[in-house]
UniProtKB/TrEMBL annotation, chain A:
<dbReference type="InterPro" id="IPR030379">
    <property type="entry name" value="G_SEPTIN_dom"/>
</dbReference>
<keyword id="KW-0132">Cell division</keyword>
<dbReference type="InterPro" id="IPR027417">
    <property type="entry name" value="P-loop_NTPase"/>
</dbReference>
<dbReference type="GO" id="GO:0051301">
    <property type="term" value="P:cell division"/>
</dbReference>
<dbReference type="InterPro" id="IPR008114">
    <property type="entry name" value="Septin3"/>
</dbReference>
<dbReference type="GO" id="GO:0005856">
    <property type="term" value="C:cytoskeleton"/>
</dbReference>
<protein>
    <submittedName>
        <fullName>Septin 9b</fullName>
    </submittedName>
</protein>
<keyword id="KW-0342">GTP-binding</keyword>
<feature type="compositionally biased region" description="Low complexity">
    <location>
        <begin position="1"/>
        <end position="12"/>
    </location>
</feature>
UniProtKB/TrEMBL annotation, chain B:
<dbReference type="InterPro" id="IPR030379">
    <property type="entry name" value="G_SEPTIN_dom"/>
</dbReference>
<keyword id="KW-0175">Coiled coil</keyword>
<dbReference type="InterPro" id="IPR027417">
    <property type="entry name" value="P-loop_NTPase"/>
</dbReference>
<keyword id="KW-0342">GTP-binding</keyword>
<protein>
    <recommendedName>
        <fullName>Septin</fullName>
    </recommendedName>
</protein>
<keyword id="KW-0547">Nucleotide-binding</keyword>
<feature type="compositionally biased region" description="Basic and acidic residues">
    <location>
        <begin position="415"/>
        <end position="427"/>
    </location>
</feature>
<feature type="region of interest" description="Disordered">
    <location>
        <begin position="404"/>
        <end position="427"/>
    </location>
</feature>
<feature type="coiled-coil region">
    <location>
        <begin position="343"/>
        <end position="392"/>
    </location>
</feature>
Length: 350, 427
């Protein structure tokens, strides 16, 4: 019989292991092989989970925050290789309208890749940081995020609740730092300080093609120090590392944030290949080339490796924190609610 | 991918969009699976069947291990449940398996209450989960899910029909757990009898409205095999952990003088089908049905029982845990009030009794006084009489003395006195 994994049993007194079995995965209705009688099929559950996930599809809600003109829409389009955000420049209105307050605009798309379906919602925040007086410009954003938690909570505590609670909670907020090259501005610090407590924040240096590599590195260093000094925990947060392996991976990421990104939805011919880039008189910046900018790292973090983790942290930590706070504070309003409830004596339960 | 699935996902404002290149979120299912691997899985099986029908042996055979089990006696006064948890691992998948066996099922003379401990156990697991879900500070992702995901109901291989105990029990359980009926010790039934038996069982279940677990048909990758398997229910199984040499292989089998029943031979019994359906194909669906259907039903009933309604959008959400607390306080306050009332009534009665007794005491006292005064009166009267008599006596004495003085000497009132006078030298 081939060597490989075994079905092993561990229980308080017993540690018998069964005979080795053929490691090929089951599922998809295939029958087990004739001679491999020790195979149970527990690992087929992975395939079952995958099938279920594919059938259900995924949801992702990304918020982009930053002053107008920093390339937020372009970056979203680059990330998802499609027009998920509409640029302001294509608006029919000749003068770019700057909103008087921060607006929250949410657009959803159904995208699909290799059989995996995702409902992607991009939440734009036009008007952020654009006014003369920007005090409290974070408030509408905070309110929006909390409103999503509230909606989820309401559905969760319903008696008749949906099979799958629709998830509109903001999973990740990408904060665009203008490439001044100096340090964080008070607006940046204030925003990130407040919002890192309720949502995963991924800060990026926008339009990074205006910085040389040295300027970029020193800028990042300064930003990291300022974040640390202000007690701002951006994603991936140190306290949520699950094990040593996690910590190792995340430490590497933490040494690189904020990612210096360049976005583009235009393709150019470079060295015989068609690549996404920005063409200037002095050269073409390749967006997906890590020697040019860190877009690829951002994409990998957000989409290819940590997407599930981002959603988990939103669900099991940020949402739970909100829920605890909310349930504790609604205590005082119970009396008015209880007036409508009949007191049933029979099965009061504790 | 069925179009209905896509339709389900779309809602207002979600436009389908095509991607110009490879984005990379197709790794999402892998990310999800990796997370599950590191967390591990939970699966809980409940086996209901009479003592000695082969529940433990079947579990051993299914999971290819030797679970700690011992034979139970047939003299249990009541049905009990015994749950044991094991950590199994196959390749990189860790499974926390809990096997719950009934002990003493079907052994009692009076089996009317036999189903109750099973129902209670299942409800208790739902209750524990509900409690955790309603807590303010909760840790659901760390929670060891003990809810019963699959219930294997072992039918005796009588060859005729279901017993009434079977029907009653399954009817009570069908809305609480996924029931998979199996015919135990199927090597005692011949093939033709088995076919008839299966048809009879299924028709009895249908006519009694028992809803057993149907393998799901909505996913087209497994719909075909599940449909076929649904037609083979209930599975006729044989369990064995002993190995017998057949041909040149060692197979799990039961050896009889007339032949060898091979457990994993699909011509001999449906064991492979059961393992396939229960573990390889539908384990995740069993878990999901338990959570989204049976648990939700329990939760809804429980909350409605408590008198909760869904709040309308204006009201703030209520922490159900908090409301339990408040209701409990209310209930205790009610109890307290009733206790106080009772105490008051008691005190009242005591007072009344006391008053009565005082009254009685007073009366007695009165009587006593009365008697005493009467006694004093009588005594006074008697004293008076005595005095009068004394007076009489005295006056009589006086008269007598006076009379004696008036008598001449010698003439005595009585001779004795004269003589005495003479003798005393008088005169």
């Amino acid at each position: 019989l081939s060597s490989g994994s075994e079905v092993s049993l561990s229980h308080s007194n017993m540690s018998e292991s069964a005979k080795p079995h053929h490691p090929s995965p089951q599922g998809k209705g295939e029958k087990s092989h004739g001679g491999d009688f020790s195979y149970v099929g527990i690992d087929a559950i992975l395939e079952q989970m995958r099938r279920k996930a594919m059938k259900q599809g995924f949801e992702l809600n990304l918020m982009v925050v930053g002053q107008s003109g920093l390339g937020k829409s372009t970056l979203m389009n680059t990330l998802f290789k499609s027009k998920v955000s509409r640029n302001k420049s294509v608006q029919s209105n000749p003068e770019e309208r700057i909103p008087k307050t921060v607006e929250i605009k949410s657009i959803s798309h159904d995208i699909e890749e290799k059989g995996v379906r995702m409902k992607l919602t991009v939440i734009d925040t036009p008007g952020f940081g654009d006014q003369i007086n920007n005090e409290n410009c974070w408030q509408p954003i905070m309110k929006f995020i909390n409103d999503q938690y509230e909606a989820y909570l309401q559905e969760e505590i319903n008696i008749n609740r949906k099979k799958r609670i629709p998830d509109s909670r903001v999973h990740c907020c990408i904060y665009f730092i203008p490439p001044t090259g100096h340090c964080l501005r008070p607006l940046d610090v204030e925003f990130m300080r407040r919002l890192s407590k309720v949502v995963n924040i991924v800060p990026v240096i926008a339009k990074a093609d205006t910085l040389t590599l040295e300027e970029r590195d020193s800028f990042k260093q300064t930003i990291r120090e300022e974040l640390r000094a202000n007690g701002i925990d951006v994603y991936p947060q140190k306290e949520f590392d699950e094990d040593a392996e996690d910590r190792m991976i995340n430490d590497k990421i933490r040494e690189m944030i904020p990612f210096a990104v360049v976005g583009s939805d235009q393709e150019y011919q470079v060295n015989g290949k068609r690549l996404l880039g920005r063409k200037t008189k002095w050269g073409t910046i390749e967006v997906e080339n890590i020697a040019h900018c860190e877009f690829a790292y951002l994409r990998d973090l957000l989409i290819r490796t940590h997407m599930q983790n981002i959603k988990d942290i939103t669900g099991s930590i940020h949402y739970e924190t909100y829920r605890v706070r909310r349930l504790n504070e609604s205590n005082g309003h119970l009396e008015s609610l209880l007036g409508s409830l009949p007191v049933k004596r029979a099965t009061v339960f504790w | 991918m069925a179009s209905s699935d896509v339709a389900r996902q779309l809602d207002k404002g979600a436009r389908p969009l095509s991607l110009a290149g490879h984005v990379g979120f197709d790794s999402l299912p892998d990310q999800l699976v990796n997370k599950s691997i590191s967390q591990g899985f939970c699966f809980n099986i409940l086996c209901i069947g009479e003592t000695g029908i082969g529940k433990s042996t079947l579990m051993d055979t299914l999971f290819n291990t030797n679970f700690e089990n011992f034979e139970s006696s047939h003299f249990e006064p009541q049905v009990k449940l015994r749950a044991q948890t094991y950590d199994l691992q196959e390749s990189n998948v860790r499974l926390r398996l809990t096997v719950v066996n009934t002990v003493g099922f079907g052994d009692q003379m009076n089996k009317q209450e036999s189903y109750q401990p099973v129902v209670d156990y299942i409800d208790k697991q739902f209750e524990t989960y509900l409690q955790e879900e309603l807590k303010i500070k909760r840790s659901l992702h760390n929670y060891h899910d003990s809810r019963v995901h699959a219930c294997l109901y072992f039918i005796s291989p009588s060859g005729h029909s279901l017993k009434s105990l079977d029907l009653v029990t399954m009817k009570k359980l069908d809305s609480k757990v996924n029931i998979i009926p199996v015919i135990a010790k199927a090597d005692t039934i011949s093939k033709s009898e088995l076919h008839k038996f299966k048809i009879k069982i299924m028709s009895e279940l249908v006519s009694n409205g028992v809803q057993i677990y149907q393998f799901p048909l909505d996913d087209e990758t497994v719909a075909k095999v599940n449909t076929t398997m649904n037609g083979h229910l209930p599975f006729a199984v044989v369990g064995s952990t002993e190995e017998v040499c057949v041909g040149n292989k060692m197979v799990k089998a039961r050896q009889y003088p007339w032949g060898v029943v091979q457990v994993e031979n699909e011509h001999h019994c449906d064991f492979v089908k059961l393992r396939e359906m229960l573990i390889c194909v539908n384990m995740e669906d069993l878990r999901e049905q338990t959570h989204t259907r049976h648990y939700e039903l329990y939760r809804r009933c429980k909350l409605e029982e408590m008198g909760f309604k869904d709040t309308d959008p204006e009201c703030k959400p209520v922490s159900l845990q908090q409301t339990y607390e408040v209701k409990r306080q209310e209930f205790l306050a009610e109890l307290q009030k009733r206790e106080d009332e009772m105490r008051q009534v008691f005190v009242q009665r005591v007072k009344e009794k006391e008053a009565e007794l005082k009254e009685a005491e007073r009366q007695l006292q009165g009587r006593f006084e009365q008697l005493k005064s009467r006694h004093a009166e009588e005594k006074a009267a008697l004293e008076e009489k005595k005095r009068l008599l004394d007076n009489d006596l005295t006056s009589f004495g006086n008269r007598k003395t006076a009379a004696a003085l008036l008598q001449p000497p010698g003439f005595t009132v009585n001779g004795k006195k004269d003589k005495d006078r003479k003798n005393s030298g008088f005169m």
